[in-house]
Design a protein that fits this description.
Number of helices: 13
Number of strands: 19
Structural class: alpha+beta
Shape: elongated
Strand content: 15-25%
Radius of gyration: 31 Å
């Protein structure tokens, strides 16, 4: 077998010009397969780790997935708000340990702004129940004296080059809508920058609920009230307690009571509310996008099959030119099985070289694009050892290549010794 392996390697090297294109196509197909699998795994990980210390998310009655998307992932918008009376009613439930209200809708240079309470920084957990950590500065005070204070997510600070003491202004609504206008008369001061979490927190500007109320005192219907301008300092004299928020995060004293509280929220008579379990909503989300995942993986598999078909075609096309070479091997004592093994080993070497090159290219692509993917999509790619699924795909490519190489091997197996030594006209 060692001698056959050496002959197969030498034969492949002798035809390296042609086989290099096959190696390249297999490498590209393998890289596509492994990169898509890594992306799929890391997208799921980023979504599932976005919130881990919250038992329920409550909001206006809508779809569970939609509620999770805008309340946790800052995607889309709320169809309606919920009153603070409803939030307080949930907080008063005997099974509820804490409630953190969330107010969304404004932005800053394309990044969402979240109005919340100071308790958010203690209660919000991500990943394996990891707390938020301030890389610089402190949390906003949540008082009238510290009304215009902001805490930035790591990605906001890095992308915009902001640091402590930076003065920023918020934009009413989303800038992408083209209808946004700035709250230029009430600037904020950056007092803290959060450490990177790999979650939507990194792309968020955090301010207090009272600050959200203050910048909208002289606004109505999404536009400034003509002839009314309340200065930033004068806003402190108003009652800035919010009457409504977008959603709220809920933590329970005991998770056993989660369905009891969920039913209480659903039966709340004063207004239509919805309480969703984050894990259940994420499962629904993955069921919705699962078809697209499988379609992408299937397309990648088809690309790999096409590459392997190219390997078969190249070896078969060269088989006629190698008939005399194979006949000489037969003449010096090689049997049909040796010829079959030789061509199978040659195909396996070509497939293995392409698969290894593709795996290296996929790993390099993950490392190279990690900062861009994190900044553009908030997805943290995890360079490192291949996952079990990636090993399975890598093995599948190798196995498929070895099986494909049996086709020309079987064709050579059936050639007789005389066929190779007799000249063909």
């Amino acid at each position: 077998m060692k001698a056959l392996l050496g002959i197969a390697a030498a034969s492949a090297w002798n035809r390296r010009g042609t086989l290099a294109l096959v190696v390249l196509s297999i490498a590209l197909a393998t890289a596509l397969l492994l990169a898509l699998e890594r992306l799929r795994t890391d997208i799921r990980s980023s979504f599932s780790q976005a919130v881990s210390g919250t038992d329920l998310v409550i909001g206006a009655r809508t779809g569970p997935v939609q509620l999770m998307l805008y309340a946790v992932f800052r995607v889309g918008g709320a169809t309606n708000q919920i009153s603070m009376d409803g939030v307080r009613a949930v907080a008063a439930h005997r099974a509820v340990a804490w409630v953190v209200p969330l107010a969304l809708g404004d932005s800053h240079r394309g990044f969402p702004v979240l109005g919340t309470s100071t308790e958010y920084f203690q209660r919000f957990l991500y990943g394996e129940r990891q707390p938020l950590v301030l890389a610089q500065g402190r949390a906003f005070a949540g008082t009238l004296d510290g009304l215009y204070e902001a805490v930035l997510g790591a990605e906001v600070a890095d992308a915009l080059g902001y640091g402590l003491g930076q003065r920023i202004t918020l934009t009413h609504g989303l800038e992408a809508s083209g209808l946004a206008a700035e709250h230029a008369d009430k600037p904020f001061t950056v007092v803290g920058v959060l450490a990177r979490t790999g979650t939507p927190v990194d792309r968020t500007v955090h301010v207090s609920l009272q600050a959200i109320e203050a910048i909208h005192l002289d606004w109505a219907g999404g536009a400034p009230i003509p002839g009314l301008a309340i200065p930033a300092e004068a806003a402190r004299k108003f009652d800035l307690e919010p009457e409504a928020v977008t959603a709220a995060l809920v933590g329970l004293k005991n998770r056993v009571a989660v369905f009891n509280v969920q039913r209480f929220v659903a039966d709340y008579e004063a207004e239509p509310l919805l309480a969703v379990l984050p894990g259940v909503a994420l499962d629904e989300l993955w069921q919705a996008v699962g078809l697209g995942e499988r379609a992408l993986l299937a397309l990648s598999g088809l690309v790999a099959l096409v590459s392997l078909a190219g390997l078969v075609a190249v070896v078969l096309a060269g088989l006629n030119e190698r008939r005399r070479e194979l006949a000489v091997l037969r003449a010096v004592g090689a049997g049909p099985r040796h010829v079959l093994a030789l061509l199978a080993l040659e195909g396996a070497l070509v497939t293995g070289a392409g698969a290894l090159l593709g795996a290296a290219a996929a790993a390099a692509a993950v490392v190279a694009t990690q900062p861009w993917v994190q900044q553009s999509f908030g997805i943290t790619l995890q360079p490192g050892a291949p996952t079990a699924a990636q090993w399975a795909l890598f093995g599948a490519v190798l196995a498929a290549g070895m099986l494909a190489s049996l086709v020309p091997g079987w064709r050579a197996y059936r050639l007789s010794l005389a066929d190779g030594l007799s000249p063909r006209l």
